[in-house]
């Protein structure tokens, strides 16, 4: 019998988590590790490894084939370009201190698509091979150019078999034309809701009139179109986090049960924010505590809410092919299934890459709607967009579940070859997966209820967390 | 029950395939669709419905023509009957390609026979006349005992009718590497292979199917099907003998069979050997659902689809009912008197027509 290579990591309770390259995992102890490393596995070890798909008899037998299948399903497949983020204007009617985009003021000139840019964008969209498309309108505040949004939507509806639209809006100004735009079944709203009213005002709106505008509009949109219409994201200032129980109450109040907790992004104006030392450790603590808060709240109320990114990471541990979130997948090749069209018609692989270019740090544009994709540049970026051969990742037990983010590395360190454990990306994800495994192996009814809900099953039982001693 | 065999008079020597067309309500001479050479058109209805086509006339007894419009029949003139190979109004059409089998399952609903009549030519003719987009079931006996004929049949019909799909039941005992090129030449998205695996334990599986070494051979075949890119519906009939091993089987699926399209846990059908052995075999999942639920949850937690086939909805706890689609074929589906006022009847597949009134589910009619 041949045992596939196992990677491992100690857990705070003294146990050890093991995983193979195809993401098969289990928990065991030091005794097993010793037997494994000394090549002295006993019959019970071998039976356990066989049952768990961690070994095979010979090439092409069923266990070998299954492992190959699982490994290949863990790799994110390049797909057709079918998701575009459009930035029709960089102007905004808010001035958030942590704005990631270095937005332009509402009255500024020269920050919107020109008629020529719009024409070229539509021609570019028309040239895509996909039959279905998802369009996300970003900004600035895209609602300031409702006329462009209408034109793009009309074009996409006639050009594609299926088209879906998401307007990322601060919901500050909703007139009848904007509301009519949002009314369509194929159109959704994504907004920022930073927690309770006080936090939202402190971080975003700065004055009560504008805070009222926002909450009145949010009430109106949810009330008129139903809860499925709106998703919302809170941005968390590590130095001054919101009252999290109040944040959850507020989200639930608007019918939003999935909360994607994001730290202030190290981009744009946010680069100037001083967040003190040890930001990563403090963020990881905040996030882990938030998960515990959710578990308790879910158990207490019987109404289940989730932290979107944690659920995503949990699913990446448990399931194959959970590659639908662009922030965590591997390989994470650029411009394969989505890209960003900026206010001047330039193409970027991600929104963060756009911001890097905007602040003049590095030009990460990969072409324009008129000239098309700069494939040589995309290929250059892609050389660092996989973790399979990273000298640190190959030893990490979480490698099959994790991803890469070369843009974040460039943003923070100005280079792509920083030792992985020294990066924000690695520190953040190691902590998230530590928390995932802590919960998976916690024998606690409250935790199991939440895990079941987040994994999409009726109940969570012990056999879902394989263990061997 | 919907009749699958009907009484027919025909003046011919050999069995033949026809498609019945009624065109009721259309003006004579104004038939809207081009006719196939095998189409026969309803001319008049007296004591029987009379159809006429290029090859002559047939008379159909005892069924209203409106119920069989578009049906494809295999007419057996000597017996004076016809098998409704394709019922145009039904999604449940299955070709029984042989009654021979190399296994002898304790619960077999269709106990095997030694005799075999090769009807592939008729099946091909019938498939080509099936309604647009139809899915055709292939069953037995064991269809792959005639593997060469079966694969040729698939190549032919799938080439000529690119809209057809197939669902093929096989015990997975007869594929070998030499079949790989042909398997790969078939459009894999259009075929689902229904393969039974009853237990992780080879001894229990072999005992259930009545064949030594069947489990080992099946395991090889599952690897073969994965490498062929085949879509697999793994089928596990639930019985007293294998119910205790359901969690171990679920774990095996998550670690070793993650490539299956779906895992179907199936309730027992009280016919054939299952009827004879009912007391010994039937696992009352309404009284003991825990193991079934745990197995479903384990497999689904790993992102693998798992469903309950042939489970009346009211025997399933509410939180699992969305996994129990109505799977009992229309022609053998029945509801009990108690079902009359049931609020969840619409989404329920009911019972097999022959489900025993005694020795059934202890907890019928649970509404929550």
TrEMBL record, chain A:
Residues 76-311 form the Radical SAM core domain. GO terms for molecular function: iron-sulfur cluster binding; metal ion binding; oxidoreductase activity. The keyword Acetylation does not apply. Pfam families: Radical_SAM. InterPro entries: Aldolase_TIM (IPR013785), rSAM (IPR007197), rSAM_paired_HxsB (IPR024023), rSAM_sf (IPR058240), Sulphatase_maturase_rSAM (IPR023867). Transmembrane segments: none annotated. Its cofactor is [4Fe-4S] cluster. It comes from the Bacteria. Keywords: Iron, Iron-sulfur, Metal-binding, S-adenosyl-L-methionine. The keyword 4Fe-4S does not apply. PANTHER family: ANAEROBIC SULFATASE-MATURATING ENZYME HOMOLOG ASLB-RELATED, RADICAL SAM DOMAIN PROTEIN. This is His-Xaa-Ser system radical SAM maturase HxsB.
From TrEMBL, chain B:
The keyword S-adenosyl-L-methionine applies. GO terms for molecular function: catalytic activity; iron-sulfur cluster binding; metal ion binding. Keywords: Iron, Iron-sulfur, Metal-binding, S-adenosyl-L-methionine. Its cofactor is [4Fe-4S] cluster. InterPro entries: Aldolase_TIM, Radical_SAM_PqqE_MftC-like, rSAM, rSAM_paired_HxsC, rSAM_sf. The keyword Iron-sulfur applies. CDD domains: Radical_SAM (cd01335). NCBIfam families: rSAM_pair_HxsC (TIGR03977). This is His-Xaa-Ser system radical SAM maturase HxsC.
């Amino acid at each position: 019998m041949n045992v596939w290579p196992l990677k491992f990591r100690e857990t705070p309770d003294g146990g050890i988590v093991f995983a193979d390259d195809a993401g098969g995992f289990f928990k065991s102890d030091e005794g097993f590790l010793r037997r494994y490393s000394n090549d002295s596995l006993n019959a019970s070890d071998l039976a356990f490894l066989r049952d768990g798909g961690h070994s095979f008899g010979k090439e092409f037998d069923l266990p070998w084939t299954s492992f190959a299948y699982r490994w290949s399903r863990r790799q994110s497949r390049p797909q057709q370009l079918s998701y575009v983020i459009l930035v029709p204007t960089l102007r905004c009617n808010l001035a958030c201190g942590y704005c990631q985009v270095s937005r332009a003021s509402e009255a500024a000139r020269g920050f919107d698509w020109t008629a020529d840019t719009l024409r070229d964008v539509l021609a570019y969209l028309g040239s895509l091979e996909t039959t279905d498309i998802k369009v996300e309108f970003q900004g600035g505040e895209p609602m300031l150019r409702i006329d462009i949004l209408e034109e793009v939507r009309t074009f996409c509806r006639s050009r594609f078999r299926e088209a879906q639209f998401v307007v990322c809006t601060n919901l500050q100004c909703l007139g009848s034309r904007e509301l009519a735009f949002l009314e369509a079944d194929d159109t959704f709203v994504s907004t920022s809701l930073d927690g309770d009213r006080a936090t939202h005002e402190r971080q975003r709106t700065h004055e009560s009139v504008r805070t009222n505008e926002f909450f009145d509009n949010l009430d109106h949109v949810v009330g008129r179109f139903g809860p499925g219409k709106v998703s919302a994201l809170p941005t968390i200032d590590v130095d001054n986090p919101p009252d999290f129980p109040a944040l959850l109450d507020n989200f639930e109040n608007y019918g939003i049960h999935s909360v994607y907790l994001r730290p202030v992004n190290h981009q744009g104006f946010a680069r100037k924010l001083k967040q003190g030392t040890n930001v990563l450790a403090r963020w990881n603590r905040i996030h882990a505590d938030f998960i515990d808060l959710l578990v308790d709240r879910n158990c207490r109320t019987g109404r289940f809410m989730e932290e979107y990114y944690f659920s995503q990471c949990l699913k990446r541990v448990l399931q194959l092919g959970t590659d639908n979130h662009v922030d965590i997948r591997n390989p994470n090749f650029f411009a394969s299934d989505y890209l960003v069209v900026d206010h001047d018609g330039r193409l970027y692989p991600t929104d963060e890459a756009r911001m890097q270019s905007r602040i003049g740090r590095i030009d990460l544009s990969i072409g324009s709607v008129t000239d098309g994709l700069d494939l040589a540049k995309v290929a250059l970026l892609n050389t660092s967009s996989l973790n399979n051969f990273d000298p640190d990742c190959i030893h990490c037990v979480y490698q099959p579940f994790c991803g890469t983010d070369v843009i974040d590395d460039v943003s923070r360190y100005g280079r792509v070859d920083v030792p992985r454990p020294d990066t924000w990306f690695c520190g953040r994800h190691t902590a998230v997966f530590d928390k995932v495994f802590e919960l998976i192996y916690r024998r606690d009814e409250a935790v199991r209820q939440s895990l079941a809900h987040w994994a999409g099953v009726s109940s969570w039982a012990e056999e879902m967390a394989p263990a061997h001693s | 029950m919907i009749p699958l065999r009907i009484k027919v008079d025909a003046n011919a020597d050999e069995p033949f395939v026809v498609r019945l067309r009624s065109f009721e309500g259309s003006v004579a001479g104004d038939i809207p669709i081009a006719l196939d050479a095998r189409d026969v058109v309803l001319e008049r209805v007296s004591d029987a419905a009379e159809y006429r086509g290029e090859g002559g006339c047939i008379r159909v007894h005892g069924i209203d023509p409106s119920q069989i419009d578009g049906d494809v029949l295999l007419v057996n003139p000597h017996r004076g009957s016809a098998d409704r190979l394709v019922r145009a109004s039904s999604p449940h059409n299955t070709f029984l390609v042989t009654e021979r089998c190399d296994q002898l399952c304790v619960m077999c609903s269709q106990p095997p026979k030694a005799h075999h009549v090769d009807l592939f030519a008729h099946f091909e003719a019938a498939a080509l006349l099936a309604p647009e987009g139809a899915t055709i079931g292939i069953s037995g006996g064991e269809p792959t005992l005639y593997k060469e004929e079966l694969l040729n049949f698939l190549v032919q019909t799938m080439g000529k009718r690119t809209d057809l799909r197939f669902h093929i039941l096989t015990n997975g005992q007869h594929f070998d590497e030499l079949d790989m090129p042909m398997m790969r030449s078939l459009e894999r998205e259009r075929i689902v292979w229904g393969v039974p695996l009853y237990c992780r334990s080879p001894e229990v599986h072999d005992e259930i199917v009545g064949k030594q070494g069947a489990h080992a051979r099946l395991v090889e075949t599952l690897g073969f099907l994965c490498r062929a890119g085949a879509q697999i519906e793994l089928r596990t009939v639930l019985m007293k003998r294998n119910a205790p091993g359901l969690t171990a089987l679920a774990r095996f699926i998550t670690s070793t069979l993650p490539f299956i399209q779906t895992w179907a846990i199936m309730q027992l059908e009280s016919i054939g050997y299952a009827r004879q052995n009912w007391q010994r075999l039937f696992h009352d999942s309404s009284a003991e659902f825990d193991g079934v639920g745990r197995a479903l949850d384990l497999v689904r937690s790993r992102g693998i689809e798992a469903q309950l086939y042939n489970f009346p909805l009211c025997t399933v706890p509410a939180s699992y009912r969305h996994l129990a689609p109505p799977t009992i074929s229309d022609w053998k589906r029945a509801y009990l008197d108690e079902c009359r006022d049931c609020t969840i009847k619409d989404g329920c597949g009911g019972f097999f027509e022959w489900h025993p009134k005694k020795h059934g589910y202890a907890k019928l009619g649970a509404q929550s």
